[in-house]
Design goal:
The chain is mainly α. It contains 19 helices and no strands. Helices cover 75% and strands 0% of the residues.
Length: 457
C-alpha cells in the first residue's frame, strides 16, 4: 500500500516544527527558566538542543525515512521484531503525553473566550488565582474544553498528511510567529522591561553547577522537540528521499528553539515590569499573565492573541502526537485512518478526564491508592495528571531517545548514515561528530539524567 508524502519540503518543516512547537515552548519553558535562574537555564537549554538533542532528532527522522513506516513497523523493518519494543514505547509515550496535554490545551480555549469576553478584566492576582483554581477543579467545564480540543485534533488527523496535517501547519505556524512577535514587541515597550531582559539573557554562571538545572533543561528539550515518542520518526517516514535530512533537522530545531526563546522575551519583560513573581510555576501563564494584561494598554486584545497563540502551539503538537498512534494502528492493524484516529482520540479523551479530575474532585486519589498499596516512592504517590507527566517526561521520552541512539549508533550505523547522506550524494561534514555524539556522548548524558531522575544515582 502506497503511503502519502509531504507535498513540499516547506510543508514538512512547518509540520515538524509545529510538532516541536507546543505548550512546552510557551507554557512550560518560561516557568522552568524562571525557576532555574533565567539566563543560565536558557544557555543550558541551547547547548543541549544543538548537541545531544539534535542528534536524537536527526536519528529519528532518518529511521522514519529509511523504513518508510510507522514507529513500530520501522524498527522491525530495519532490523528485527525485537526492536519493535522501541516503537511500542513511542506509541505508549504519545498516548501518555496527549492524555494530559489535551487537558491543558483545553484550558487555552477556555481562557481565549474568557479574555475575549472581558471576564478576566480588572481582576487582581488573588482573584485570578481563585478563578484558575476554580476552573481546573470544576467537574464539567475542563472536560468540555478538553473534548472540544480533541475533536479538532481528530478532525485534522482524519484528513491525512497533505489535506489535514500539512495544510493546517502551513496556516497555523506563520500565524503563530506573527502573534508571538507582535506580543514581544508590545512587551518591550513596557516600563521596566529591561530588568526582565537582564534576568532572561544574562546568565548567573554559578547556576550552571546545579545538576537539577541541566536535568530540567534536557527533559524540557525532549518534551519541547517531541522526541522519544515517535513523532519525528513518523513525520520523517512521509519525507521524499531527495530531501537533505541534516539541513531539515537543523531548521526544525532552530524554529522550535526560536519560539521558546521568543516566549521568554514575551513573558519576562512583562512579569518584571509589573513586579510579579517570575518563579510562579505553571500558574505563570494562566494567573500572572492575565494580571499583566489587565495592567497593560490594549491588554485585552493582547491577552486574546496570547491565548490564541497557546492554542495554535498546542494544536500543531497534538496532531503530530495523535498521528503516531493513528499511523501505527492503521498500518500495523489494517484499520482505516478515520477509525484509528477516532479510537485513539476517544481513548485519550477518557484518560484525559481522569487527568483533569485528579486536579480537582480526585485530587486525593494517588496511583498507590488505585493499586491498593502503601509506598514511599514519590512517583506512585502522585495523582493521574502528575503521574503521566512524570512518567512521560522523566522516563519514556529520555528512554526512547536513548534506545534510538543505541539503534543508530551501534545496531544500524551504516544504514542510517547512508540514509542521512542519501547514499553519499549529500556532503554531511559533521558525520564523524554526529556518530561520536550518537554512540558515546548523548547516550551517556541521557543515561545519567535518567538514572538521576529515578533516584538511582
Amino acid at each position: 500500500m502506497s503511503r502519502e508524502l509531504w507535498s513540499s519540503r516547506t510543508g514538512f518543516i512547518l509540520a515538524a516544527a509545529g510538532s516541536a512547537v507546543g505548550l512546552g515552548n510557551i507554557w512550560k519553558f518560561p516557568y522552568l527558566a524562571g525557576k532555574f535562574g533565567g539566563g543560565a537555564f536558557l544557555l543550558a537549554y541551547l547547548i543541549l538542543v544543538f548537541t545531544i538533542v539534535k542528534a536524537v532528532m536527526l536519528s529519528e527522522i532518518a529511521i522514519g525515512r529509511a523504513a518508510n513506516k510507522n514507529t513500530v513497523g520501522a524498527f522491525a523493518s530495519l532490523h528485527n521484531n525485537r526492536w519493535k519494543i522501541v516503537g511500542y514505547m513511542g506509541v505508549a509515550a504519545s498516548f501518555t503525553v496527549l492524555s494530559f496535554y489535551s487537558v491543558v490545551a483545553g484550558w487555552t480555549i477556555y481562557y481565549t473566550f474568557e479574555m475575549a469576553l472581558g471576564s478576566l478584566s480588572n481582576l487582581q492576582p488573588d482573584a485570578l488565582t481563585g478563578k484558575f483554581n476554580g476552573f481546573i477543579i470544576d467537574p464539567i467545564l475542563p472536560i468540555i474544553y478538553h473534548g472540544i480540543f480533541m475533536i479538532i485534533v481528530v478532525a485534522i488527523v482524519i484528513r491525512g498528511i497533505k489535506g489535514g496535517i500539512e495544510k493546517a501547519s502551513k496556516l497555523l505556524m506563520p500565524a503563530l510567529f506573527i502573534i508571538i512577535i507582535a506580543l514581544v514587541i508590545r512587551g518591550f515597550m513596557l516600563d521596566g522591561a529591561l530588568k526582565g531582559l537582564e534576568f532572561y539573557l544574562v546568565p548567573d554562571w554559578s547556576q550552571l553547577s546545579n545538576f537539577d538545572l541541566w536535568s530540567a533543561a534536557l527533559g524540557q528539550a525532549f518534551f519541547s522537540l517531541s522526541l522519544g515518542m515517535g513523532t519525528m520518526l513518523t513525520y520523517g517516514s512521509y519525507l521524499d528521499k531527495k530531501e537533505n535530512l541534516p539541513n531539515i533537522s537543523m531548521q526544525v530545531a532552530s524554529i522550535d528553539t526560536a519560539v521558546a526563546f521568543l516566549a521568554g522575551l514575551l513573558i519576562f519583560p512583562a512579569v518584571f515590569s509589573f513586579g510579579f513573581d517570575n518563579t510562579a510555576g505553571p500558574g505563570l501563564t494562566f494567573i500572572i499573565l492575565p494580571a499583566v494584561f489587565n495592567q497593560m494598554f490594549g491588554g485585552q486584545l493582547f491577552g486574546v492573541l496570547f491565548f490564541i497563540l497557546l492554542f495554535f502551539a498546542a494544536l500543531t503538537s497534538a496532531i503530530s502526537i495523535l498521528e503516531v498512534m493513528t499511523s501505527y494502528w492503521s498500518e500495523e492493524k489494517g484499520i482505516c485512518r478515520k477509525k484509528s484516529a477516532i479510537i485513539f482520540g476517544l481513548l485519550t479523551f477518557i484518560i484525559g478526564i481522569a487527568c483533569s479530575y485528579s486536579l480537582g474532585i480526585w485530587s486525593d486519589i494517588t496511583i498507590s491508592y488505585v493499586l491498593g498499596i502503601t509506598t514511599d516512592l514519590t512517583i506512585l504517590n502522585l495523582g493521574v495528571f502528575d503521574f503521566l507527566n512524570y512518567v512521560s517526561s522523566n522516563i519514556l521520552l529520555p528512554l526512547g531517545g536513548l534506545l534510538i541512539l543505541i539503534f543508530v549508533g551501534w545496531v544500524k550505523p551504516k544504514k542510517i548514515m547512508d540514509e542521512i547522506t542519501n547514499n553519499g550524494k549529500i556532503d554531511f561534514s559533521l558525520r564523524h561528530l554526529f556518530m561520536i555524539m550518537t554512540k558515546y556522548i548523548s547516550p551517556v548524558a541521557i543515561t545519567y539524567v535518567l538514572l538521576n531522575s529515578l533516584g538511582i544515582i
